[in-house]
Amino acid sequence: MTKGKSVLTPSVARYQQVKDFIAGKIQDGTWKAGDRLPSESELVTQFGIARMTVNRALRELMEQGRVKRIAGVGSFVAAEKPQGNLLQIARLSDDIQRRGHDYQCQIVTVERISASLEVASALALHTGESVFHSVCVHLEDGVAMQLEDRFVNPRMAPDFGQQDFTLEQPSDFLVRTVLFDQMEHVVDAVLPTPEQAALLQMEASQPCLLLTRRTWMREVPITLVRCLHPGARYRLGSRFRTDGNAVTS
User: 29-80 pLDDT, tens per residue?
Assistant: First the structure.
C-alpha cells in the first residue's frame, strides 16, 4: 500500500473498510495476539480519512473483542477468544502432517452449476442461479479421511472457478481471499450414498459424521460445505480447561 493514498472502495462505508483491513490482517495471521496495530494517525494517512472514522473502526473492533486499546499507548490485537475444533475452520492437512503422516488432496470436480432449491436457500440465491461446486477427497497415508462437497456464492468469490486446486485447497483459497465474520457448524450422523462410500473407500452400510459449515460476510452467505468423515476413522471434539481456554498440544 502506498502511504498517503486512499485504498477505499466507494461502495463500502469508510469505517467498515478500515475494520475489514484490520480484521483481515488478524484473520490471516499477519498480525497475531499482542501485536501493536498502526496508530490512528498512521491509519488516517494510509486511508486518507478523518480520525473520527478510524476511531469508530477501532472502537467497534474493540467491542467485538478483536482489538485491545490502552490509553496513551496504542491498540493491540486481542488474545483469541476460546474456541475448539468444532468452532474453527481446521486444516485437516495440518493435523495429518503434525502426526507425521502423508497428506494428499484429490480433486474430483470443479464446476459451475445451477443451484438446487436447498443450495440456493443456503446461499440466499434464486433456485437455478449459477454457483461454483467443488468436490475433493482428503487422504491420510492413502486412506480417505474426508469427502468435501462445497458450494460457493460467485458474488463473494468470483475467481473460485479459475483456481488450480492442485496447488491450493478450496478452503485455503476462500480463507485467504474472502473475509468472513460469521460461521455455522452442524454435525449429523448419516449413512453415505453409494457414490460417497466409493470415494471414501468404505461400505455404504457404515456410518459417517457429517460436518456442515456455512460462512457469511456482513450477512451475505459465502459458502456451504459438507465434510463427510468415515465414523470408524475420525472423531470431532474439543478439550477445554476449567477456565474456558482450549488445551493446545
Answer: 899 888 999 999 999 999 999 999 999 999 888 877 788 888 888 999 987 5
**Strand-pair category, 130-140 with 67-70:** unpaired
Compute CA 151 distance to the chain's CA centroid, rounded to the nearest angstrom: 14
**Residue 194 placed within a domain:** yes
- Integer-rounded Cα radius of gyration of the chain: 21
- Count of the separate structural domains present in the chain: 2
The SS3 call for residue 136 is strand
Domain match, 220 and 152 both = yes
Closest CA to 64 of 54, 73, 74, 77: 77
User: Do 189 and 67 belong together in one domain?
Assistant: no
| Alpha carbon separation from 197 to 29, 149, 193 (Å, rounded) | 36, 13, 6
What is the Cα–Cα distance from 144 to 138, expressed in whole angstroms? 6
Residue 9 forms part of a structural domain: no
Q: Are residues 214 and 98 in the same domain?
A: yes
The residue range of the domain holding 30 is 14-77
170 Rama class: left (phi>0) / alpha (psi -120 to 50) / beta: alpha
Q: What is the CATH number of the domain that holds 26?
A: 1.10.10.10
The overall pTM is greater than 0.90: no
Q: What is the DSSP letter of 236?
A: -
